[in-house]
Amino acid sequence: MSIFTRFLSTATGRSGLLFALSISLGAAAVSAQSPIDQTATHPTPVTMKTFVLIFRQNPARERTPAQNQRLAAEMPPWVQRQNSEQRKFDPRILTKESAHVGVEKDAGTPPGSWPVSALLFIEASDLADATRVAESHPALKFGVSVEVRPWTAPVPPAPRPADATTP
Predict the structure, then answer these.
(1) How confident is the model at residue 30, as a pLDDT?
(2) What is the pLDDT of residue 9?
(3) Which residues, at least 6 apart from 38, have a Cβ–Cβ distance to it below 8 Å?
(4) Does position 26 have pLDDT exceeding 60, yes or no?
(5) Tens digits of per-residue pLDDT, 60-91?
(6) What is the DSSP string of the chain?
(7) How high does pLDDT run on average in the chain?
(8) Does residue 57 surpass a pLDDT of 70?
(9) 3 state SS of 5
(10) Long-range pairs for 142-145 at CB < 8 Å and ≥24 separation?
């Protein structure tokens, strides 16, 4: 039994399971260069963009230990398929603890309804490609919803004039 499978069999709740999934993704992630289009006569680099897969767990659908084991068995082959396509992964797991501010809180949205449980940053050629990756994720069979969004770095602040002083 692998460490990953052992961890999943003892993990309780979505945080433990998703943490284990991130370990699996992190352990299998590769630091690949931009992938090459293998179908072209002269290989051309494919420009990859960064996307974030936003995982939300259905709070009404808790997984059984058997489902956790099934998911644990399905993750390594999924990660290997993604790695064979030279995808980079950067998983982030969120804890259950949270605070809500702003309109959502004021609108009476129940806290914790389909909470965001994990973020997985991936490289894909476009939104359709990133969506195909999300649609193939094994967690979808176990009460998880995945939103796919393009990710860009924040806009850097404008440089300050040399003669500006800080108050």
Answers:
(1) 35
(2) 41
(3) none
(4) no
(5) 887 889 988 998 899 899 989 998 988 888 88
(6) --HHHHHHHH--HHHHHHHHHHHHHHHH-----S-B-TTSSS--BPPPEEEEEEEEE-TT-PPPHHHHHHHHHHHHHHHHHHHHTT--EEEEE--S-----SHHHHTTPPTTSS-EEEEEEEEESSHHHHHHHHHT-GGGGGTEEEEEEE--PPPPPPPPPTT----
(7) 74
(8) yes
(9) helix
(10) 142/61, 142/63, 142/67, 142/71, 143/57, 143/58, 143/60, 143/61, 143/62, 143/63, 144/55, 144/56, 144/57, 144/58, 144/117, 145/55, 145/56, 145/58, 145/114
Looking at the whole model, is its pTM more than 0.85?
Answer: no
Domains of the chain: 3-32+45-96+113-150 (3.30.70.1060)
* CA-only gyration radius of the chain, Å: 19
**DSSP-derived secondary structure letter, 85:** T
**pLDDT of residue 28 exceeding 90:** no
